[in-house]
Amino acid sequence: PKPTEPKPTEPKPTEPKPTEPKPAPKPIEPAELVKLTAALKLGRAALSERNLDITAEQLAIAEPLARSGEPQKAFIRLKAMHEFLTQFMRLTNEAIDNYESGAEILIGTSTIVVVVETSPQDLTFKVAGSMKTYLRNQLSTGLALGIADTNFEEFALKSTLKAAYVITQKTLRDFEVTKAREFWKMGPESIELFDGYISDDYEFAPE
To answer: Is the per-residue pLDDT at 1 higher than 60?
Structure first.
């Protein structure tokens, strides 16, 4: 009889190594919590004044401190609003840079303002026979949203950016909160982020 060839042995499947659980984050110390609260409050105030660089600096201070729990969630919400507002301001400045004298901006459903002049710092326009000038980082809500409606048409997050611009203002009236929520719901972000940001006061209980 012919010798039978040995059957090739199949390699044994390697069992996956058990993954070690990540160590729990170090609790936030009371002194760190004080520093974190101050950074988040200052960052939010700077955001309302459109001082985005200061907000970024305070977020950098807060990030390593906001390790867990509600402080971490509040940090994430402030960082998200900072990113949205940064995009809004970038697109707004690009639009203003491209405006020529005579360009029209529709505010709301019927008010049209006519661009007179632009500079690296401000925007001058005519509305109802009167001339007005706004610094680029201090536009009125109506004008800012008008620029967004006129020039952000191709941007997928337009409604989210509009909501972020309104909700991060220094003073908010009830109808503005309602309008901002309507804008936000038209976008892809969770309403929990929006409502959480509104209620954030950065007064955290010690862990």
So the answer is: no
Tokens encoding 49: 């004044």
- Residues pairing with 63 in the sheet: none
Buried-state track 26-35, b at ≥16 Cβ within 10 A, e below 16: eebeeebbee
Q: Which amino acid is at 82?
A: H
Tokens matching residue 203: 């007064």
Task: State the pLDDT confidence band at 206, using cuts at 50, 70 and 90.
Answer: confident
Instruction: Check if the beta carbon of residue 66 is closer than 8 Å to that of residue 75.
Output: yes
Measured between alpha carbons, how far is 149 from 130 in angstroms, rounded to an integer? 22
